[in-house]
Design a protein that fits this description.
The chain has about 70 residues and is mainly α. The protein has one domain (about 1-55). It is built from 2 helices and no strands. It has helices at about 25-30, 40-55. The termini are far apart. The relative contact order is 0.22.
Amino acid sequence: MSKETPCVAVCMIDPKTRLCFGCGRTLPEIARWHAMESAERLAVMALLPARMADVGLVPIAESPKRT
């Protein structure tokens, strides 16, 4: 994946928060991602960790592995 995308190829939207479980973006953000300027993408990406933490979502890439 590009360094200018938070996508981890786990595209599932949480019905309560309407955020992607994998990256924390909203559907409108995902839909227009490639139309955004680089600076706008980077600004959104900077917000994602706090956004996910605020609603209690753990990024899939950081979830503990199941045994």
